[in-house]
Argininosuccinate synthase (Papilio xuthus), 380 residues
Amino acid sequence: MADVGQDEDFEKARKKAMNIGAKDVIIEDLRKEFVDNYMLPAVQMGLIYESRYYLGTSLARPCISVGIVNAAKKLGAKYISHGATGKGNDQVRFELSVYSLWPEGKIIAPWRIPEFFERFQGRSDLIEFAKNEKIPVAATPKEPWSTDENIMHISYESGVLEDPGVVAPSGIYKMTRDLNRTEDYPSTIDIIFDKGLPVSIVIPSGHDKPMELSDSLTIVQTLNKLGGQHGVGRIDIVENRFLGLKSRGLYETPAGTILHAAHLDLEAFALDREVLRMKKYLQEKMSDFVYNGFWFSPEATYTRKCLELSQQGVSGKVTVQIYKGNVTILSRKSSTSLYNKDLVSMDVAGGFSPEDSTGFININAIRLKEYARFTEQTKF
């Protein structure tokens, strides 16, 4: 079992595993590994799948896979088994990661074995089986949806959520408050970045000295708590799975939402315009690689290097306000920004010659004039 920050009683899980036949249970704390090597680099790269999903589950799978493969090698195992369904993304993510890290390894996937899936059509059958065999499970007939939780997010899918036209049940969310239960005052946070990576946060404490945090795990935990109190980071979306199916998912990503918003603002402030546009193209490709399970692929490694290079000048401070589900940028500062106050000012020339704009406009108008002339001639 990988501890990637989920709210779980691991000792209880250990006893459960031993009671139903496990020979041994390995529980490994991968929270720091997940935050430092997957979550925060994803913020640095700006990874968002289909413009909305911050990839909380997708990023955890390669991290967990490293732990699984290391355990298998240490034990001299030849097989790895997983419980991912035959219709979902996780089977692809786990297996592609395992094969990348351990080419000679073999996979047992019960959900793809006819003997299994012909007996158990879905979660309802498994819940009934677990009940009969006295195996404790979190899912119930009243709450049959599945959840995936880590320090970055919680996702909810399946069960009643499979109908996109049905409003999600009240009380389903665990990390964030409903907006009518959020704090009635805003919280202000300074987020400091170094080469695109969040390295510290500063929170006014109401006393002379504000609270400054620089430990990555503590930063994420703190932003999750604050974001959750203000209802930040909820989305309810339909996404395109790698297998070609559309699926509905509910996601809570408080810290990730805050960090992505701050990073996006600093990036636009610091980067050259054309580098920013090229970076946007590459981050969409990288988001697809991560979502589809290709974190360890050569194309992902290459793209990651390019994205990291783009962040050399993305350093500085962004001040954000979180309130009633919103993340609002208040200000930003950077010693590496390309922003030139004198050049852009409407009060001073700053080295800019206004008459140059005439030629700039005339050159750009040539194409438009020619298109207008052509369309006028070809009208019927």
Summary: Residues 1-108+140-337 form a domain with the Argininosuccinate synthetase, chain A, domain 2 fold (CATH 3.90.1260.10).
